[in-house]
Amino acid sequence: MSEWWTYRLTSFLLFSPRTYYRLIELYNVAIWPAQLAGIAIGLAILGLLIGKRRHRERIIAGLLAVCWLWIALAFHYQRYAQINWAATGFAVAFGCEALLLVVVGVLANRLAFQTATGGVAWIATSIIAVAVVGYPLLAALTGRPWMTAEIFGVAADPTAIASVAVLALVRGRIRWLLLIMPVLWCAMAAATLWAMGAPEGWVVLAAGLLALCPALPGPRRDAMNASQR
Amino acid sequence: MPSRRRALRMLAAAGACAVLRPATGLAQSRTVLTRPIPSSGEALPVVGLGSWITFNVGDDPVARDACTDVMRHFVAAGGRMIDSSPMYASSQDVIGDGLHKAALTERIFSADKVWTSSGARGREQIERSRQKWQVRRFDLVQVHNLLAWQEHLPTLFAMKAAGQVRYVGITTSEGRRHRDIEQLMRSQSIDFVQVTYNPVDREVEERILPLARDRGIAVIVNRPFRQGALLRALARQPLPPWAADIDCASWAQIVLKFIVSNPAVTCAIPATSNVAHVRENMNAAYGRMPDAALRLRIVAATERA
Fold first, then answer.
1. How far is residue B260's CA from residue B267's CA, in Å, rounded to a whole number?
2. CB B45 within 8 Å of CB B78
3. Residue B254 domain boundaries
4. B176, B203, B227, B274: best mutation site toward chain A, by most A Cβ within 10 Å?
5. What is the pairing mode between strands B138-143 and B165-171?
6. Strand pairing report for B34-36 and B43-45
7. Per-residue pLDDT tens for A169-208?
C-alpha cells in the first residue's frame, strides 16, 4: 500500500453503521430462535466452568466450536460477506478456530482449566456473564433497536470476548494457540466499531483485554493448579 | 492546505474566463449544466452519483429500494454518471438491480473500475462487474487507485479499441500518488482522471487540473464533501447571504458549485443513499455559478468551518 500514512481507520470501512446494524437485524430475524440456543450455550459454559463436572473441558471446547462454526457460516460467509469482501476470510478464520477447538479440546482432550479462584475467577466469570447476558443490552443502551442486539453464540463480538475469557483459563502454552483468533477478532471488532463511531468499540477492547488477564504470567499459577486436574 | 493568498493567486492565474457563468446578471436556467468529455465532445451533466459506502447495503430489500429511488430521482433530475468499483462490496449489485428495476440502464453513464493486483484477472473482473451492473458495456472503466496500472491500462486500451468500453481512466483519492497521476496523464492516452477536490482539498488546482485541460482529459471529482465531514463542519455556520446569488439553498450546493465551476472539472460525484440529498445535489447542476471572487469567499467560509 503506497502512502500508507495517509490512510485512516475510516478509510477501510466499506459500509455505514446503519447498513451494519440493519445486517445484524435481518440476521437476527432470519435465525430466530437460534439466539436462545446461543444464550443457553453461554450459560452452560459458565456453569461448567464454575462446577466440576466430568469431561467439562471436552464439552466446553465442543460448545465453543459449535458457536465459532455457526458464526463462520451463518454470519460471516452468508451475511457479512455481502457488505465486506474480507468476511470470507473471517469465515475461514472462524472455521479454523472451530476446527482447532475440536481437534485440541474434544478429540485430543488437551484442555485443562486452571481452578479459578479469587480475582482470576471473578474476572473470568464476570466477563463471560457480561458477554452472554450484558452484551445484548448494549443495543438498547446505545439507542439501537432491540433487534440489532448481538448475542453470544450467534454474533461474533460477544462470542470472541467470552472465548478469550474461557480460553485464558486453559493451562499451558496451548492456550495461546487457541487465543490467537479470539484476541485478533476483539481487536478487529474494536477497530471496526471505532471507525463506525460506535462506543461499543471500547467495550469490546476493554472486555477482551480484561478477559486475557488470567492468561498473563502470574505467581506460578499453573504450577499451583497442576495437581487439580 | 493552501493559504487564502495562495488560493487567490491560483484563481487569478486561472483567470476570470475560467469561470463557467458569472454569478451576476444571469437568470436561473433549468437546463442541466453539462461539460464535454474532451476526447469525444460528448456532454456530461456536471453532477454525478458516487456509490462508496452509500450503496453497499447487501441484500437488504428496504435499503435496495431506497437506492433505486435515489437513482430514479438522480436521472429524473438530469443526472447521468454513476460511479462504482469492485472494491465497494455489494454496490455494483445494488446499482445493477436498481437500474434494471427502474428501467434506467440505457439512460445513465456507467463508470466503474478495475481493482485487482493481477493484470491477468483484469478482464475477468471487468466482465463480472459488467454482469452485476447489467449493462451491455461500460461507458468508462478506470484503474482504481492506480493498482497494477502497468497491466490494466493496456487491457483497457485494447477493450476500448474493440468497442468493449467507451472511455479509459485512472483514479486516486485524498491526494495520494499525485506525482504518478501526473506522469500517467502526460504519458498515456487516457480519457478521464478521477481525483479528490473540494474547497478544502485544493492541491489538484496547482498541477493536475491545469494539466487535464492542457491534455484534454476529463476530470471526475470524488469526495466533494469529505465523506460528509465538510458539510457537518459547515452546518455550524448559517448559510451566507451570497448563496442566493448562485441559486444555492444549502452548503452542499455551494460546495458542489465551487467544484464544478472550475473549468477543468467534468463531473463531481457526491455519494448518497438519501433521495432528498440527491435532489439537493442535482440542483447544483442548475442555475448560476460562482465567479472568481465568490469562489474565494467559498474557500474562506470553508476555512473558517
1. 7
2. yes
3. 4-304
4. B176
5. parallel
6. antiparallel
7. 999 899 999 999 999 999 999 999 999 999 999 999 999 9
What's residue B124's pLDDT?
97
Does residue A71 lie in a domain region? yes
Cell of B146: 492506480
Closest-CA distance, B300 to chain A, in angstroms, reads 25
Cα angle value B232/B233/B236 (rounded, 5°): 95
* CB–CB contact B90 A3 (8 Å): no
Q: Does A88 touch chain B (CB under 8 A)?
A: no
Closest approach of A157 to chain B, Cα-based (Å): 20
Residue A114 to residue A161: CA distance in whole angstroms? 18
Give the DSSP H or E segment for B133.
helix B122-133
Q: Please state, rounded to an integer, the average pLDDT across all residues of chain B.
A: 91
Measured distance CA(B88)–CA(A216) in Å, rounded:
40
- Residue in A6, A14, A79 nearest the CB of B89: A14
User: If you ran DSSP here, which 8-state letter would residue B142 be given?
Assistant: E
Compute the average pLDDT of residues A78-95.
98
Tell me how many domains chain B contains: 1
Say whether pLDDT at B24 is over 80.
no
Contact B74, B45 (CB under 8 A): no
Structurally, how many domains does chain A consist of? Answer: 1
Q: Which structural domain, as residue segments, surrounds residue A180?
A: 51-215
* E strands in B172-262: 192-196, 218-222
What is the maximal distance between C-alpha atoms in chain A?
56
Q: Are B75 and B32 in contact (CB under 8 A)?
A: no
Q: Does B274 touch chain A (CB under 8 A)?
A: no
Is A31 part of any domain? no
- Grid look-up 459488467 returns B130
Q: What is the pLDDT of residue A114?
A: 78
d(CA B2, CA B10): 10
A90-107 burial, b at 16+ Cβ within 10 Å, e below that, comes to: bbebbbebbebbbebbbe
CA distances to A188, B199, B244, B254 from B251, in Å:
36, 11, 11, 5
Return the C-alpha cell found at B97: 438491480
Measured between CA atoms, how close is A30 to chain B, in angstroms? 12
* Contact between A59 and A109 (Cβ < 8 Å): no
CA of B52: which chain A residue's CA is closest? A14
In this prediction the pTM is 0.89
Its ipTM equals 0.89
The Cα A152–Cα A129 span in angstroms is 10
In tens, the pLDDT along A157-176 reads 999 999 999 999 999 899 99
CB contact under 8 A, B63 and A82: no
pLDDT greater than 80 at residue A118: no
Work out the pLDDT band at A2, boundaries 50, 70, 90.
low
Which CATH number characterizes residue B138's domain? 3.20.20.100
